[in-house]
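Progress note, sequence design subtask.
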């Protein structure tokens, strides 16, 4: 449609350019920085492992195709100036549909597709097109640029909101997929940064974090910095493999030098590690570290205390942090008056933890837990007393 007003013509051109640029920016961020690993999983599932998705090629290709679709609809349909951004809804819609699959936990089976929202929004768009045909633009419109731009940006915002709403936004799934990719790239520090500020965690993510810590010789120092289920069952991935994709379980068991013959859970993880350690002609250090942490996760301080003296020549402050915490705690549980480790710097922290816990104990375990959460959530003491 041709407009008599130069302001209106300029506004139409500006809206077209701005909408295209904003869509391209959103598409690149959404595809490359948020859904890249998920698209890899999706393509692997749909192709039954026959093809691989490469984000460095997939992101620009998909973005260009959707950009072309938006420009084509813009050229074919005469939208009123205030709703020109409706031309970009189909592109945003397809982005959401492309990433909408949900999978069953621990498998690569599709469990759900949000057909309801997909159909509802398609009907909504058809109705919007009909209304645009019934109420075409007024040629005499002559408003300021901002008057035209604001409703169009609002339409884009809700279009992108719809994309994110139907796209798979499971934080735990995204964390798992990102961690798997980083393990494949041997970026173990990167694995430890995945979801580090989130309380969302799964058995698979815990197993991958533990493996990355072991690779970086941090298992005894950092394990309890992350949220954990009680018990050692999450320390290793289940067998047969239940990680969604990749060879991460095989890599972990190859690293330990053995593989369980069947599915296991607590306390069989500990039994498996004990078996590996006892039957290795030369037990590997990583198995010893896994076994020590397994005892800690099972809250079995007696076995931990017996085994650590076999693993380390002396009990000093050079031990990993969580081992020091467990030693101080066990000594206290055996004899509250024991002063053996009072010279350790960590003992003062333990005393503060005990005082904090005791101060709120009369108000119930929830109050005591909350009082210790900020300063001691990263310690073995917090796990031992408050994870049930």
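Output:
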């Amino acid at each position: 449609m041709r407009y008599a007003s130069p302001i209106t013509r300029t506004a139409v051109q500006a809206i077209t350019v701005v909408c295209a640029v904003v869509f391209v920016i959103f598409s690149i961020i959404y595809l490359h920085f948020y859904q890249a690993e998920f698209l890899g999983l999706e393509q692997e599932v749909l192709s039954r492992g026959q093809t691989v998705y490469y984000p460095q090629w997939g992101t620009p290709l998909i973005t260009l195709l959707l950009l072309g679709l938006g420009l084509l609809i813009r050229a074919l349909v005469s939208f009123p100036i205030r709703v020109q951004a409706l031309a970009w809804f189909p592109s945003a819609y397809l982005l959401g549909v492309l990433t909408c699959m949900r999978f069953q936990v621990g498998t690569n089976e599709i469990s759900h597709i949000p057909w309801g929202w997909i159909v509802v929004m398609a009907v909504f768009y058809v109705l919007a097109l009909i209304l645009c045909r019934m109420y075409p633009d007024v040629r005499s419109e002559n408003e300021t640029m901002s008057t035209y731009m604001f409703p169009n940006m609002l339409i884009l915002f809700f279009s992108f909101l719809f994309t994110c709403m139907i796209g798979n936004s499971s934080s735990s799934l995204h964390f798992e997929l990102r961690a798997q990719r980083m393990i494949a790239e041997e970026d173990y520090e990167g694995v430890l940064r995945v979801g580090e500020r989130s309380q969302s965690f799964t058995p698979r993510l815990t197993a991958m974090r533990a493996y990355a810590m072991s690779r970086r010789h941090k298992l005894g120092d950092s394990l309890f910095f992350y949220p954990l289920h009680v018990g050692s069952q999450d320390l290793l991935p289940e067998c047969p493999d239940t990680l969604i994709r990749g060879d991460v379980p095989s890599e972990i068991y190859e690293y330990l030098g053995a593989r369980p013959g069947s599915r296991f859970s607590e306390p069989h993880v500990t039994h498996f590690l004990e078996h590996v350690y006892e039957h290795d002609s030369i037990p590997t250090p990583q198995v010893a570290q896994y076994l020590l942490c397994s005892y800690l996760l099972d809250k079995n301080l007696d076995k931990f205390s017996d085994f650590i003296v076999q693993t380390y020549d002396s009990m000093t402050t050079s031990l990993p942090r969580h081992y020091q915490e467990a030693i101080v705690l066990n000594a206290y549980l055996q004899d509250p008056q024991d002063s053996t480790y009072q010279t350790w710097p960590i003992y003062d922290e333990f005393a503060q933890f005990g005082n904090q816990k005791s101060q709120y104990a009369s108000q119930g375990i929830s109050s005591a837990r909350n009082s210790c959460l900020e300063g001691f959530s990263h310690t073995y003491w917090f796990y031992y007393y408050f994870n049930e």
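Residues 323-388 form one domain. Work on this subtask will continue into the next period as scheduled.
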